[in-house]
Amino acid sequence: MRSAETSAAGDASPRRILGLALPALGVLAAEPIYLLFDAAVVGRLGALPLAGLAVGGLVLAQVSTLTFLSYGTTARAARLHGAGRDRDAVGEGVQATWLALALGLIIVGVMQVLCVPILSAIGGGGEITTEATTWLRVAILGVPFILVSLAGNGWMRGLQDTARPLRFVLAGLGLSAILCPVLVHGLLGVPHLGLVGSAVANVLGQAVAGGFFVVAIIRAGVPLRPSWSIMRAQLILGRDLIIRTLAFQACFLSAAAVASRFGAASVAANQVVLHMWNLVALTLDSLAIAAQSLVGAALGRADASGATRLGWRLTVWSTVFAIALAALFAAGYTVIPGLFTTDLSVVAAMHSIWWIFVAIVPIAGVVFALDGVLLGAGDAAFLRTATLGCALIGFLPSIWMALAFDWGVRGIWVGLSIFVILRMITVVVRMMSGRWALVGADIQRVAE
Asked: Which positions, given as ranges, span the membrane (predicted)?
């Protein structure tokens, strides 16, 4: 008992938490920052290319966000790491990587066939859909590399290694950041590719990052053969995370579809502010990743009380950090929108939803921290049900009412606010119940 208490106390130290959270913050914040940079580069082409990037980028994000490859792998690997079975934890990464490659190739094939009808449904047809299709046909080729990177982040986080993923991701995004303005605007003698240049830059950077993760797992020295039994177990845990992800996708795809009915300025403004929301969410998720890794390891060594203390401590940290972020965005009300576009109609639409965005950031501090705790515990079934319920009760009715009653993009963000508040209530109640804190290295019984 003394050993477990000492271990839990060490895990809960600020130095340990920050040692995991800060590199994870770099990984999570790097891509949204790049997406904002990408939007700023494309935005100089005008509102129509920016709207095409917004719609195409939203679809790419939805089809490539298979969170079970990262969060599910982290939960399984962390419990094995806590039980002293590191080779088995790396083996989880091998099988997650095989799954990532297979699923990525399937997605590429399906989306090349279906991208036009999907983009037409979201973008409303016409010029926005044409621009989005041009971008997505190229950008979709990066999906296998994106999924491999998700799997790589998952098993490394489970082993409490967040430094290497940061280096790998920064290498890929750094290349994309260099290539994007060069290819989009034809700098340094390179042909002017316009919107397609953004997609090419994305794919090349994703390939570099994914390649680093593949090399890392080859060098780990564990068997590389596919194991259906392990992949099946990952998919069983993943089924609830996939359904949860689909609930998010239904919400944000519906929001984009509604925004597109209000015109190019509304859809562009919605997507740029949504990028900032994703930046906030993923930044806060750096503490949630520390929670996943540390809580999973604590439960793997049968320390439920230590896992609970870690969860509440990280929630306090996350909430304080979220309040600071909200203050930063509030101060930038007059400056930040103009960084991404010179189109006054887009700026005006962004201003109409700005204070709603600022108000829900502190609430998100609680939501994402406790999401991390419950994901680390493998409590995917509850998160699935809670997310579906909040989406059906809160978000989806509000955004479709915004269309029916012509509330504009502001109605969409009111719906997002209701969604976030409901999610906060559900995860706090679950955390207080203690029913999530099942101990042991075998996460499969938690998933089932």
From this structure: 53-75, 96-122, 134-156, 168-188, 200-220, 241-264, 276-299, 311-333, 353-374, 386-405, 411-429
